[in-house]
Every structure is written in C-alpha cells, then in structure tokens.
Hints:
Strand order of the largest sheet: 1-2
Largest sheet: 2 strands, antiparallel
Radius of gyration: 19 Å
Strand content: 5-15%
Shape: elongated
Number of strands: 2
Order of helices and strands: HHHEEH
Structural class: mainly alpha
Number of domains: 1
Amino acid sequence: MIQGALQRKVIEIIIELTDNYLSKNFKLENRYMLEVESVHSVVDLLNTMERFSKLRVGADNVTKAAPTKLRQQIYAVLRNRGFSDVIDENSVKRHQLIENIREEIKKEMNL
C-alpha cells in the first residue's frame, strides 16, 4: 500500500512539474527550452501543411503523408535527445526540468 502511494506521489510530481515547464513561454535563445520550441514549431508547421493541402489544387500521396512523416522524425529526435544533459558554454549540465524534478522528489521524500 505504501509503495503504491509513493509511486503515485512521484508520478504526480513529475506530471505537475512537466506541465508547468511545458506551459512556460519559451525564449528562442534558451537552450533549456528547445523541447518546447520544437513542439510549438511542429504544431505550427502541421497546421500550415494542413492548410496547404486544403487550399492548393492537386492530388498526391506526398502531401498527405507529410504530417505523419514530420511527426515521426521530430518525435524521434525528441525521444533520443529530449531532456538530455545540456551543453552550456564549456560544461555539460543536467537538463533544468530533470534537475527540478529530482530536487522536488528529494524534498518530498525528506518530509
């Protein structure tokens, strides 16, 4: 019972901090927000591609497949490198979100 409650608390912390992080306004120069910038850019591009396919005459499979292929490629990159350690000038640092989650979980465990 205690193990289940502990797992639930950890998952709730991760979800809350991730939601807060992803809902922030991002700055293009912030190397810790590249994941958010990527997701926003993909959504914008997918919307543009949808409008393009509806507002231009033509029938081809490439236009129909483009959104799926784009999502697959971008999310593969995010799966491989998203929230990984960050190169910051001449050093490598833990990603800000991961560090925040780690600290919050440690704080909760010490209560």
